[in-house]
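Please complete every field before forwarding. Incomplete forms are returned to the sender.

SECTION A: IDENTIFIERS
Entry label: holo-338
Bound molecule: zinc ion
Molecule representation: SMILES string

SECTION B: INPUTS
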Amino acid sequence: MKKISILLAAIVFTTICSESFSQTNSKTYEVATWQGFRTAAVSYTFDDNCPNQLPVAIPLFNEFGFCTTMFVPSDWIKDWSGLQTAADQGHEIASHTVTHNNLGTLTAAQQLIEFKNSQESINAHIKVHSCITIAYPYCVPGNDSLCASFYIAARHCQGYIEPKTPADFMKISSLTTGSVSSIQTVADFNSRVQKADSLNGWCVFLLHGIDNDGGYSTTQSAVLRAHLSYVKEQDNTYWVATFGDVVRYIKERDAATIHELSNKPGAITLQLTDKLDNAVYNYPLTIRKALPKHWTSATVMQNGKKVEAKVTKRGALRYITFDVVPDNGNIILKAAKR
Ligand SMILES: [Zn+2]
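SECTION C: PREDICTED COMPLEX
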């Protein structure tokens, strides 16, 4: 069995062991910058559990099949059932601290309570996922290392599009929308996601009030609907996902290593690993590989289960694209019988 180790450095990866193969391209794996090789990531985040978020905004996002992140101050929630329903539908319920106090005015001991207790409270009420991210009240960060001991990332509000790998996961930039911001119209929203596309980056929107529900900086649902329709039309460009899922994807992608365990005439076996905590980092990464020349198509299995795969032709080569979870067992590509 020939063992080939392939180190994934960035997006395109080259072999480090020198094995002589006639098809150089068949040794090359690519991990997509964004899921499905889309060119931009977009996240919609809601703060403060404003009155129309659950009854108006969430059903709207459900219509388009998009999942959002709701950052809630845990002390403000008297009835968790609506948030539980949203979580069941795939939305992320995450921390906006316990009391919504300004972290910059709190001692480290007080901040610890805000970080820890809000997470515990969400985890006690929301059963489908763990609380792994936080957003800062008033856009004021606290003690980063303390915060990072509870959360994999935190949302800030600097107003720029994040690059494909943010410089600081404890200060992820977001763009405030609505009546007291520069993002109010459909064109305003669309231009921001277009910018993310041009930068190959990640656009995180920050929404509060919806349709004059009394919440801060209200955004009109009709505007949101038209914008989401625009994003949905370009499903090959925009990857819409929760804040936490995009963070997980980025960290996994940047830590990913592919080892080819064997490369036989009709089957290739490989492993995808990331050295991250598998309890949190279990989001599928999109991989692409050129098929050996004589393969017309292929199937993909991971850990004994069939994985959705797509074969596309580009020039003389056929490529297979598939989504697999790091550290989740061997991945086997098999040449499909004609
Ligand atoms: Zn807030």
